[in-house]
């Protein structure tokens, strides 16, 4: 994304408008909130590690969403009863060259280590899980749960070395891996790029087989239709879409059509409902510049971090990234359930990666979802499937497929 600099006058106006706004979020009924808290709740895609390296920022705190751009921290996970999820090692797509692979691998390894060191500082409150059984044990012990995932396999590199690097990340605790992001890479075509491989590359086919061997979950979010089809045909384990929606709810290639949703469900997989791409993406020059700064927020001084948060939240007031209402989100979630079945839908909001919408803009507001679904008659058993049961079942299926 090309970096541009918003004018100071524009940001001053936006900040003035921000000062007039009250924090969003309708109160949640205590009884329904208690129902939510009894569930094991997991999110399949948390981009929060982008904030882990920030000077002066504490993952263990409870940051005020009125002044802080981060959407997830331990304080608000407790407040919204998000018991855990998959913390993503994201790497932006770069050139398919030895130099590009080397830089990407160094970035991903550093991010993996940063996740480990951050979680270790809060080991009394959140534990690391590598299996579904470990997640349930941590929850039973009153601890939050942290899995590790990779978004974009680009850092794995090329050739045989790519499979060795994948196995290395598996040893580091990664259990969910997305094959591609917004641009094609050496493994596959992206849903938002022109086809280069018409699905999987030869190396991508090796990647699928190695993912199965290692007992890791294949994440098909961001993959092209042809890539999804070929992974469905090749994989011995179910596929997961960690943060996607149906094209019926919003017609965008980043979402997936209902026919493929049914095929993923028939294969035992699941689609995790997201807050993104349920409306047009508002990515003007101001937002693009802020996204560029956000991707590097860990390199900024605390005062510059605070300025970035102010500018982002001020822009949200006049030009939100998504024009999606909470009711639209609920309708999209219900559509997924109607198409895939309640045994094949999970949750993946894409918090800290561009996700969130009015009334659901940080994890403290997650009980609203349970409140709304309970009001519509969803049973506790089905809520348990939606919030974690289906996700853990897909993980267990991958574990059984592994030969290590």
Describe this structure in words.
With 404 residues, the chain is of the alpha/beta class. It has a single domain, classed as Metal-dependent hydrolases (TIM Barrel, Alpha-Beta Barrel), CATH 3.20.20.140. Helices cover 44% and strands 11% of the residues. The protein has 14 helices and nine strands. The longest helix is centred in the N-terminal third of the chain and has 24 residues, at 98-121. Mean pLDDT is 92; it is low at 1-27. Residues 1-21 form the signal peptide. Keywords: Signal. InterPro entries: Metal_Hydrolase, Pept_M19. It comes from Massilia aurea.
Number of E-state strands? 9
Indicate the structural class.
alpha/beta
Please state the average pLDDT score: 92
Shape: globular
Number of domains: 1
Low-confidence stretches: 1-27
Q: What's the CATH class, please?
A: Alpha Beta
- Cα-based radius of gyration, to the nearest Å: 20 Å
User: Per CATH, which architecture?
Assistant: Alpha-Beta Barrel
The helix/strand series, from N terminus to C terminus, equals: HHEHEHEHEHEHEHEHEHHHEHH
The total of helices stands at: 14
Largest sheet: 9 strands, parallel
**CATH fold topology:** TIM Barrel
Helix content: 40-55%
Superfamily (CATH H level) name: Metal-dependent hydrolases
Protein name: Peptidase M19
Pfam families: Peptidase_M19
Keywords: Signal
GO molecular function, one term: metallodipeptidase activity
């Amino acid at each position: 994304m090309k970096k541009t600099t918003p004018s100071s006058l524009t940001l001053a106006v936006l900040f003035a408008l921000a000062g007039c706004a009250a924090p969003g979020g309708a109160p949640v009924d205590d009884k329904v909130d208690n129902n939510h808290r009894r569930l094991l709740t997991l999110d399949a895609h948390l981009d929060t590690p982008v904030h882990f390296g920030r000077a002066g920022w504490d993952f263990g705190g409870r940051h005020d969403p009125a002044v802080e751009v981060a959407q997830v921290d331990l304080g608000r996970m407790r407040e919204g009863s998000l018991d855990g999820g998959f913390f993503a090692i994201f790497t932006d797509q770069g050139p398919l060259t030895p130099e590009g692979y080397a830089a990407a691998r160094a970035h991903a390894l550093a991010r993996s280590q940063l996740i480990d060191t951050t979680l270790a500082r809060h080991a009394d409150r959140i534990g690391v899980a590598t299996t579904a059984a470990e997640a349930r044990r941590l929850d039973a012990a009153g601890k939050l749960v942290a899995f590790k995932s990779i978004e974009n396999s680009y850092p794995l590199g090329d050739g045989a070395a790519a499979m060795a690097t994948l196995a290395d990340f598996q040893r580091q605790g990664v259990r969910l891996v997305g094959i591609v992001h917004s641009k094609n890479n050496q493994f596959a075509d992206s849903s938002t790029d022109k086809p280069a491989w018409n699905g999987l590359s030869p190396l991508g086919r090796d990647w699928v087989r190695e993912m199965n061997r290692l007992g890791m979950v294949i994440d098909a979010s961001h993959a092209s239709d042809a890539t999804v089809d070929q992974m469905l045909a090749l994989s011995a384990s179910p596929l997961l879409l960690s943060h996607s929606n149906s094209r019926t709810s919003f017609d965008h290639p980043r979402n997936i059509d209902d026919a493929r949703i049914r095929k993923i469900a028939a294969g035992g997989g699941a689609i995790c409902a997201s807050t993104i791409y349920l409306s047009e993406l508002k990515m003007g020059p101001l937002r693009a510049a802020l996204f560029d700064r956000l991707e590097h927020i860990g390199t900024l001084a605390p005062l510059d971090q605070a300025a970035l948060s102010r500018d982002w939240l001020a822009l949200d007031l006049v030009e939100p990234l998504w024009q999606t209402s909470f009711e639209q989100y609920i309708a999209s979630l219900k559509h997924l359930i109607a198409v895939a079945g309640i045994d094949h839908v999970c949750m993946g909001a894409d918090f800290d990666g561009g996700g969130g919408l009015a009334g659901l803009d940080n994890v403290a507001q997650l009980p609203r979802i349970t409140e709304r679904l309970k009001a519509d008659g969803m049973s506790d058993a089905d809520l348990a499937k939606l919030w974690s049961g289906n996700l853990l079942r897909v993980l267990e299926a991958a574990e059984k497929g592994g030969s290590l």
